Each structure stands twice: as C-alpha cells, then as structure tokens.
C-alpha cells in the first residue's frame, strides 16, 4: 500500500471492443501532442497502457494528488474532446473513459515492502 509521502500509484482497467482494436492502437501511435501535454500538466506521470487478450486494457500512472489530476482533466477542453472520441472504443462504459474506468486496488509494491522490511529489521536489532 502507499505511504503518505509516496506518490499515489493508480491502476485501472477498461475493455476495448475487439472490432475496434486496430483503430484504438492507431489513435495511440502516437497520442496527440496536446493531449500528452494535458496529461503531464494534470500531474500524472509514469503513465502506461497495457493491452491484453480480448481487448483488456490496463492503465497505470503515478501522481501526487489523483483527485486534483482528475479535476484538472475534467475541466480541460482538450481532454474532454479526447475522452469523447475514445468513449466509443470501450465495452460497457458509463461516462468518460478517464473517469469511469474500474480502479484496481494495489496489494503489493516491492519498494514499499523492502523499505518497511529494513525499518522493521532495524527496530528488531535495537
């Protein structure tokens, strides 16, 4: 789990309609420069999308304040246009893709557990 001083790590899942996979990939190769700039300006970084079988799409990013990043993008005309264009690509989506994706719960992070392990080990040695 995330510590209070660490960036928030956000992972989400969507499903791309199989018949639209080719076009979805084309829209992301590359993403429009204005949208890339808005993602960065929102405070999201280390952002990746991963595509699995059957159109399963997993996204991951880090941010210092996810609520602020979401609010920034919700108010952005560029992001609003992009999300409206992307919405038809997804199965059973109720709303904007950037707001309606299923968020996944983080249950393990190597760095956090290694840090806790070292801290615990140092406490045991005292």
TrEMBL record:
It comes from the Bacteria. GO terms for biological process: rhamnose catabolic process. Gene3D superfamilies: 3.30.70.100. It holds the Pfam family rhaM. GO terms for molecular function: racemase and epimerase activity, acting on carbohydrates and derivatives. SUPFAM superfamilies: Dimeric alpha+beta barrel. This is L-rhamnose mutarotase.
């Amino acid at each position: 789990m995330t510590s209070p001083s660490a960036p928030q790590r956000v992972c989400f899942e969507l499903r791309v309609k199989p018949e639209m996979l080719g076009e979805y990939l084309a829209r992301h190769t590359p993403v429009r420069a204005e949208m890339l700039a808005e993602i960065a300006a929102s405070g999201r970084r280390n952002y990746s999308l991963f595509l699995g079988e059957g159109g399963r799409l997993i996204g991951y990013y880090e941010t210092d304040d996810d609520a602020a990043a979401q609010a920034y993008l919700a108010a952005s005309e560029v992001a609003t246009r992009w999300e409206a264009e992307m919405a038809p690509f997804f199965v059973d989506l109720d709303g904007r893709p950037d707001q309606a994706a299923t968020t996944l719960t983080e249950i393990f992070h190597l760095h956090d557990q290694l840090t806790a392990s070292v801290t615990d080990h140092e406490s045991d040695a005292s």
